[in-house]
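Please, structure for the following, as tokens.
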Amino acid sequence: MQASISAATFKLADQAALSPAQQRLEAQLLTFITAHLNQAQPGLFVIHGDAGTGKSAVLAAAFSQLQARSRDSKPTALQGTDNYLVVNHNEMLKIYKRLAADDPDLRKKDFQKPTPLINRLTKQERQADVVFIDEAHLLLTQPDRYNKFTGQNQLSELIKRSRVVVLVFDTRQVLKLKSYWQANDLQPFLDQYPHQTFNLDQQFRVTGNQQVVDWIDSFGQGHLLPRPTDPNFDFKIFADGQPMYDLIRQKDRHGGLARMVATADFPYVVNHGTWYVTAGSLKLPWDKVNLTDDPWALRPETLNEVGSIYTIQGFDLNYAGVILGPSVGYDEVHDRVIVKPDKYEDQEAFKNRDDLGQLEPLKRAIIFNSINVLMKRGRYGLYLYAVDPVLRRHLLAL
């Protein structure tokens, strides 16, 4: 996904912008949809890939192609099909709707959150033809009264109400127990329905070399590699948050889309005043509830805030200043990065469930997932500050 200051923090890539692998994927997708549209069972097409591998870009490009054929005046196998792209993420939904305005083949109503679409199709007793699901790892896997979802699993409900389902799935981006997916949780669906899978493994967002990508991946597995060097990627570790913020402001002045983000380690209650993130001498407010149609990273005033995983997941920044909060530490005895769920302030992420077995390992996985999401936001630079003094010392010593 390419950064674009004027349009969005990711853009719907045109055919020329897609890599050879992405072009193959787009062609396979449209062939699969055409072949399975009128079969007895729904067809599933699963796209795997880590953060930054261009999953949303190719999904959006293929959906635009699908809608162009659906709305074409010339008769084709896809003409007149009723199709939707759903994402269980408010900020990403805003991006899709914003970009729909610039594409003659797309309508804002083509993009939905999963629960309203499920409820509407159920009420109307009808099936959609094709449903694309971006960030399917964010789909609920239990009922949720807050979201008015009464079923047990949103993916299951969407499959029941569709002829073909195309989903993007990455278990390393699961951020809550109520939408907890493990690597084998898709298997029962694959066993039941005809399917294809495709894996995207080329990193498109982080422009750093393999050293940079390996360093981030290893951190998420608890290991500190030697400090990566890449003349074309700005990787810096800070002893204090204020100089990091000063550099982010400077980068934003020169090229835009530079923002501060943090792990969910600082108290925050929705609609109850202003809550702050602290990083050494730096003190900035958390991101506010965004009631506008503009995504968080595109609003100039958010340069004075700290974004969360829920604000920034799925989006490109040019430069990301990442604050690793108190839940991220270092075990000097075993020489590894550790996470401490008891210090993680996002209690909504850890709402207890009695159907997942031991929750502590899952909670640790969620924190490491959130770190992976945050560290892979910046296309041209990653800046780090660790609140935990032991981890900070080890990072600075690299």
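The chain is about 30% helix and 20% strand. Residues 1-8, 11-16 have pLDDT under 50 and may be disordered.
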